[in-house]
Each structure stands twice: as structure tokens, then as C-alpha cells.
Amino acid sequence: MSHLHYLVDTFLAIDPPDSDPITPKGKFGEVGTFLIGVLKWGGLVVAVAAMVVAGIMMAGGRRHSNRIAVDGAMSVPWIVVGVALIMGASSLVGWVIS
User: What is the count of structural domains for the chain?
Assistant: First the structure.
């Protein structure tokens, strides 16, 4: 039984190699960086548009239908969370992986 404990302890003590991420050289790295930048930019454009739509819903729903105004107001926290995820996505993924 002591041999089994020794093997398990030895196996669990081994740390897998963990290097820092590096951008691949050549076109693949450029395309990856470009794609992430475009997605982040597009996400922020959509978030700004969503915030404008929420404001329109709140302003327009104030007079005619309170439900529309409430729906617009309830969407604002979701938009803020979405912007936080867009801006912090790389940090969040890096934290989860490490």
C-alpha cells in the first residue's frame, strides 16, 4: 500500500508546464489580433446602440405605456454587465485558465 501512496504523491506533485501566452508569428497572429479587436469594437457599438434604444424606450414609454419604460429601464443593468464582459473578457479568460 505504501508504494501506491508514493506513486500517487509523486504524480500529484508534478506541475505541468505553464508558459505565458505569446502571439503566433506571421499572418495567423495578425488575423487573431485583428479579429479580437473587431469583435470588441463591434460589441461596444452594439452596447451603445442598446443603451440608446433603452433610453428611447424609457422616454417614449413614459407617456403611452409604462411597461415599455420599465422594460427599457430593466435593460440598462444588462447592458452595463455586457460592456463589463466585453472590456474584461481577456482578463476574465486569463484568470479562469490560470
Answer: 1
Rounded to an integer, what distance in angstroms lies between the CA atom of residue 76 and that of residue 90? 23
Tell whether 17 is covered by a domain.
no
Instruction: Kindly report the pTM of this predicted structure.
Output: 0.67
Q: What is d(CA 26, CA 10) in angstroms, rounded to the nearest whole number?
A: 40
AA identity, residue 37: G
C-alpha cell at 15: 506541475
Is 89 inside any structural domain?
yes
11-59 pLDDT tens trace: 655 655 556 667 778 888 888 888 888 898 999 999 999 999 999 999 8
Q: Which domain holds residue 51?
A: 41-98
pLDDT in tens, 75-86: 999 999 999 998
Looking from the CA of 98 toward its CB, the CA atoms found within 13 Å total 9
Angle between helices 66-97 and 27-63 (to 10 degrees): 160
* Count of all residues that appear for the chain in the document: 98
